[in-house]
């Protein structure tokens, strides 16, 4: 989490950001998320939840190991 990075752009522009199956492409696809949905503020929260879901699941799984 706190590893040294060479350049701030590593955080702003992660590898694969513009790949065809990337999160950015998915969230800007109007067939998946219609343009009208962007008028609702909740869409930002939904996208964030989707974006962190895998990492959240990994952390919770690790947390259970240490509680037992």
What does this structure look like?
The protein has 68 residues and is mainly alpha-helical. The chain has one domain. It has three helices and no strands. It is extended. The two termini are 24 Å apart.
Q: Which structural traits does this protein have?
A:
68 residues
Please write out the topology:
Blueprint lengths: L8 H4 L10 H5 L14 H26 L1
Structural class per helix/strand content? mainly alpha
What's the alpha carbon Rg, rounded to whole Å? 16 Å
Helices, by number, come to 3
Number of structural domains = 1
Number of strands: 0
Largest sheet: none
Proportion of beta-strand residues: under 5%
Q: In percent, how helical is the residue content?
A: 40-55%
Overall morphology: extended
- Mean pLDDT equals 78
Condensed summary:
By secondary structure, the chain is mainly alpha-helical. Helices cover 51% and strands 0% of the residues.
